[in-house]
Fold this sequence. Notes:
This protein is of the alpha/beta class. Helix content is 56%, strand content 16%. It has twelve helices and seven strands.
Amino acid sequence: MKTDNPFKCLALLRSDELLAWLGMPADTVISAESVTLPMVVTTYLDLVMRLRTPLGQVYRHIVEFQGYLDNAILWRLVLYMAWEGRQNPDEPILGTIVYLSPEYDVGDTIAAVLDGQEQYRWTIRVIRLWEEDARAAVESGSLLMTVLSPLMHNASVATVEAAVVRIMHEAPPTQKADLLVIVGNFSEPIVPLPYFLKLVGGKEMLKDSQLFQHLLHDTLVAYDAKFAAQQTEFERERKRLQREAQQRLEQEQQEKQRLQQEAQQRLQQEAQQRLQQELAQILEDTVLLRFPNAPLALIRDIRRVQQPAALHRLTLAVQQVADVEAVQQ
């Protein structure tokens, strides 16, 4: 949930009520604006208010709405106050941090401790929004507190519904659309967008809000980024599956080649064995044909010869020798 722009808009729309919430109900707002600091990295101050006390003293108050974890937020507020003080040295500068959730709370104190001895301690004004009660905020009569109620303790669908009703009936016509957009943004974790639009009577009720167009643009940008990320993930997954399919195909081809080679080797071995048996039989027949009284030991010797070429040479030799002794030799 993006909160910076809704908070700035709300603070500017309801600055008098914001003063009461900050503990300065009697002061008067002279001006309120969002300020950009001219630093190496552009830094935006959420809200800088120029105020006048009941006794007439003019001063400035910086309000930071902290909707994410930043361990340096206390120092950043001091930096902002120092910059504003340098630009306006005759006007006192106050600063307040509004923490939106406990996980963003980094405390309210800046302290320097050397060798166990505290050198200085600065206490920063902070407001912890979750310590406020949502029902009490809606019933307070303050539209500022009503709009902030979805971020408070005990916020529920019922308190969001009550906040919408109060805004619809009590907000000035020029502020109604913006306040509804802001409370819808804050209540996003509690109330689904379709139901919230039904509560306010449809998108037509929000069309006059410039903030609505801004948030809609942010939503579309976020959607495009999410879609692009999904497409990237899809393409990565497609390539992974393609690689796996190619690997399986290569493995299957290798296995097929291995089986073919083994089959070919078996065929060669079987053919070699058949040839050896045939040549051995021819040699035995040749020996017995020429020398019918050849001893059985000679036949056993013939069967121990495995090389077909040797059997062939022996068959030719047997045809040329004169007696069994020569055959045996």
